[in-house]
Amino acid sequence: MKKWIIRGAIAFVVLVVIVVVVIGLTLDSGVKKAVEYAGPKLTQVDVKLDSVSLSLLSGSGKIKGLVVGNPEGYKTPSAISLGLASLSLSPGSLFADKVVIKSINIEAPEITFETNLKQSNIGKILANVESVTGGGSKTQEPDKSAGASKKLQVDDVSVSGGKINVSVTGLAGKTVTVPLPTIHLSGLGQGPEGITGAELAKLLLVQIEKSAAQAAAGAVSDLSKQALGLGKDAEKTTTDSLNKATKGIGNIFKK
Hints:
Blueprint: H1 2-43, E1 47-54, E2 60-68, E3 80-89, E4 98-107, E5 110-115, H2 121-133, E6 151-160, E7 163-168, E8 175-179, E9 183-188, E10 195-196, H3 197-226, H4 232-254
Helix pairs in contact: 2-3, 3-4
């Protein structure tokens, strides 16, 4: 009897290990597929992800090579390029109604803020997200397949070491790069209802657009300096465009 119990216990432990390993192996690819499937539905642009590594035992993970494309009509290759993001979560919450994420740290993202003086690429993506989450002018129901149903609690989010490439249509193809101010959010989804992944993406995009618009407004003067090397006629045309750009970016920021 004792021997049977020992064998049963060993078999149970082996089964648990197998389940953890199988889930651990499939979770990484599952998350990658989910991001590349739900991401475009949420943002309405291409979303690509190089790799995901998650550990159920430690509750830690890393996301590498996330690239968010641009809406139709914008010329720059991408809107957001993310080299590395790390996260820490409570492993037990993965099987609960609300996943508890202790921290998300996004390191050195590269944001391309492209504007035609009427709207920016980041603003357009944000509008797309709002149309899905119900936060914009459209009132359609949130798309469950876009990650709107799973509840999250996110204790801390930080974005640091990033840069913004400012590109204004009509300024002779000139681009200027400025630092992205550090972004910090905390205490998200603390209540019983939590927060959805779509809502979290929206909050981050709001902060990114705000920081990018501020940086873009300040970068116009740098673009004007770059234009000084042009001929007089070209310089006058570019200066006029710069004046319009300054006003246009200001209007975007006020929206």
